[in-house]
UniProtKB/TrEMBL annotation:
Organism: Flavobacterium segetis
Protein name listed in UniProt: Phospholipid/cholesterol/gamma-HCH transport system ATP-binding protein
Organism lineage: Bacteria, Pseudomonadati, Bacteroidota, Flavobacteriia, Flavobacteriales
Keyword line: ATP-binding, Nucleotide-binding, Transport
PROSITE patterns cross-referenced by the UniProt entry: ABC_TRANSPORTER_1 (PS00211), ABC_TRANSPORTER_2 (PS50893)
Domain of life: Bacteria
Coiled coil: none
Length: 258
């Protein structure tokens, strides 16, 4: 039964035709290394878009540009209808609050318990909450990622999969409308990777999130995606559903599915 679950493709999201992220002609170079050479993509509300590509193709650079962690050289990045490449810091921060970013290593504060990691994040953005309200929200979000019992643990006491879940809980506690996942299953065993992939889809359905997922894990890509894009030579080389790209005549694209 587990193998059948892994073969599932995520086609059940409540998507709409409303674009939430629109990137036009995005360019980014580091010195003489031109990483992005005109990336164009659109992500619709409620959609999970998976971006594939060989190492160094610019996948992570693309999503870091979306939250302004990396300054673009050229192009537009429209998020919720605002071009974030043209706004000041205050406007950028207003947009960032609506976006969750799950880093590869979960980026937890090692000196804080799970409770304090989540509470610190929440209190920074919701200063008027009482202690009881903070505790309630922490408990609810830990329940949603299946780790209510880990509330008093330190990050060093957590497995890799648990750290990913807590990192996701810390992202979710701010109720983001967009979540950017950077290699959510990297370094995890097959079973734990499947559990994280299932959680990504559960979150999409429960919280109506729109997501971009960067991954090398094709099982994760198949399970979580509504649509895939493949980066090559700094541009979007191919686009379609998992099934469409798996059956393409293009040998380079098919190499991802072997």
């Amino acid at each position: 039964m587990e193998n059948v679950i892994m073969q599932h493709q995520n086609n059940d999201a409540e998507k709409s035709d409303v674009p939430v992220i629109v990137i036009k002609d995005l360019h980014k170079a580091f010195g003489k290394n031109k990483v992005l050479k005109g990336v164009n993509l659109t992500v619709k509300k409620g959609e999970n878009l998976v971006i594939l590509g060989k190492s160094g193709s610019g996948k992570s650079i693309t999503i870091k540009c979306i939250v302004g962690l990396i300054e673009v050289d050229e192009g537009e990045i429209n998020v919720f209808g605002t071009d974030i490449t043209k706004v000041d810091t205050d406007e950028l921060n207003k947009t960032r609050v609506r976006i969750g970013f799950l880093f590869q290593n979960a980026a937890l504060y090692d000196s804080m318990s799970v409770r304090d990691n989540l509470g610190f994040t929440l209190k920074r953005h919701e200063k008027d909450l009482s202690n009881d309200e903070v505790e309630q929200q922490i408990g609810e979000i830990l329940e949603s990622v299946g780790l209510a019992e880990a509330i008093d643990k330190m990050p060093s006491e957590l497995s890799g999969g648990m750290r990913k879940r807590i990192g996701l809980a810390r992202t979710l506690i701010l109720k983001p409308e967009i979540i950017l996942y950077d290699e959510p299953t990297t370094g995890l065993d097959t079973i734990t990777s499947r559990e994280i992939s299932e959680l990504v889809v559960e979150i999409q359905k429960k919280y109506k999130t729109t997501s971009i997922i960067i991954t090398h894990d094709m099982a994760c890509a198949k399970f979580t995606s509504n649509r895939l894009m493949i980066l090559r030579d700094g541009i979007i080389y191919a686009e379609g559903t998992y099934d469409e790209l798996e059956k393409t005549d293009d040998k380079w694209v098919r190499s991802f599915f072997l």
